[in-house]
Amino acid sequence: MAKRLKIRQTRSTINCKEDQKRTVRALGLRRIRHTVEQPDNPQIRGMVFKVKHLVEVEELEA
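Given the sequence above, the corresponding structure tokens read:
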């Protein structure tokens, strides 16, 4: 089975650039301490890299 990423928002998007706010929303995060699981693929990795200062990521095994 494919690997998954557990992504948790740790900081607020207030005073962030609009594209970063949209990226956090596109990842499925809605508020601080909200956690979502996403598939581990290059698109999600790129989104996480863009907002790495706002989230923490944990790799999950299948």
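The CA atoms of residues 27 and 47 lie 8 Å apart. Try to locate this feature in the token string yourself.
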